[in-house]
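Dear all,

This email documents one entry for the complex benchmark we are building for the journal club exercise. For each entry we list the sequence lines for every component of the assembly. Then comes the predicted three-dimensional structure of the complex as a token string, followed by one or two observations. Please use this as the template for your own entries, and keep the labels exactly as they appear.
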Amino acid sequence: MIRDTTIGAKLWATAIWVLVGFFVLNLLAMIATVILDSFATQWLRSWLPIAYTTKWYASAWDEFQLTQVLVVTFEIVFTVVILAGLFGVTAAYAMARRNFPGKRLVMLLFLLPLLVPPITYGIPMTTVLYQTGVGGTFWGVVIANLVPTVPFVILVMIPFVEQIDPKIEAAARVFGAGTFRLFIHVLLPMLLPGILAALLLVLVRTVAMFELTFLAAGPTSQTLVVVLYYSVFAAGVRAVQSIDAMAVIYMITTLIWLLIALRFVNPTQIVARVKQPTT
Amino acid sequence: MSDVASDRLGLRQRLSLRGLDGTTLLILPALLLLLAIFVYPFLYGLWLSFAPKAGGIFANYATFFGDPFQYDTIWTTLALAIPVTIISLVVAVPVALRVRLLKRQRLLTTILVLPVSLGTVLVAQGLLNYLGPQGWFSRVLMLLHLSGGPARLTHNYWGVFASLLITGFPFTFLLTLSYITGIDPALEQAAATHGANAWQRFRHVFMPLLVPGLAVAFLLSFVQSFAVFPSAVLLGAPAGPTRVISVAAYQAAFEQYDYSMASAIAMIMAAVQLVVVAIILGARALFYRGSTSGGKG
């Protein structure tokens, strides 16, 4: 590491840390506002709430029918995770092992849904979904969420497959393992860390995926984040604290999975592609 | 590449020599799925945009570009997305260069990944409280006598700007950090040994190696900001100053039920993004492209 000891370098470093500190401070204060407000009896014209209560959680839970919303959310999310895993891992295996004509084109197709923002392709997609009759249903939301998650799993899994020596598979074949046994006893155990990381990231992304779910969801297939949006959108009808209580519940559901995911991947890998298998 | 036994005959063997065998077919489920739920809807949307409710094939586009209320949404969106992207990137590079030297970056990166994974709806809701007239931010400004009355930071341009920055900066930063940590530190040390100062090391060693990565970071975060939707509605003024293009598309589809017009707006959105992508990739081609690792070769 190179150490600069000039005054300029020190000032520059200080300036950067002040900037980072300012950003992190605002970010944490924003989150703290939501949490504090959800416990406040009343919070107007003062630095801190006058008194604290937990009644908003009970009222938010009833008002927004959160039991049902959470059940729907996790049904959708786990269906997406399983389907994205099945489609993604098989395709990633083939992409990593074979070179075939048109591979670059296929790769481009797998990259596009990750590069184009959801709202751009979401509008034509929901048009098609509503015309075929799945729009507004459970499966409509699942299908919409598969568009970005299948390519995501593929891109995350390709490097994991590539680092497994093909000789190991060849050895299993020599000893008479069929494709199914090869997969269950050889590939799956070796790929498991990668699959786990990929699927946890899919889980976090799907819980937080607003645009596609919002466009494709009907009254009975809204996930937590969409219900949160509608309640903020119609703010004024309900107490702000009650909305904030729901926001806290949403934060907790996302953060639990995020914390689990972070045990397997780096924070940088959540936005960037997973380059190396975690060790 | 093909490790299939070569004792089979005919077509099968020839196909597998080109890499087409049973394993390759495993791509098909995912490929067909994406063709059905991504490519087909997109092409259908393109076709639908040329089949308006009334008028000739270009009627939707003519309506959009003939009505300032509609075509201004492009500028409104660009006026949000471009400054946010540039600020995020300009700040992210020096911060990432500094954070790279930290031994314990995990805490900082974990905090910064929060807004990305919580999503824009939660950030919008949080900022409504935090930046509101009675929120902490406004109170601190008044305490420091930086602002006379309560600052108006929500339901206008600045509310959306702040929300884009608070989700966009961490995204750009984490992306940049992953590029910067991929650069071999030996290259910088070599430059330092030859007497290059901090600015020269950045300008002549890091910059050229980073440009390709930064171009991608710029594109991804621009495209994200360009598609701003929930915060423009919740935290902005969706009827006026922050009527972004996705709001226009949403209103056409779900308030006027004119799917043809909505598809046309979505296509215009995609086209604007494509133009920016083309410009950035074109500019990137002017810079050095090569290995970011040190050593010989």
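Observations: DSSP finds twelve helices and no strands in chain A. Residues 55-271 of chain A form a domain with the MetI-like fold fold (CATH 1.10.3720.10).
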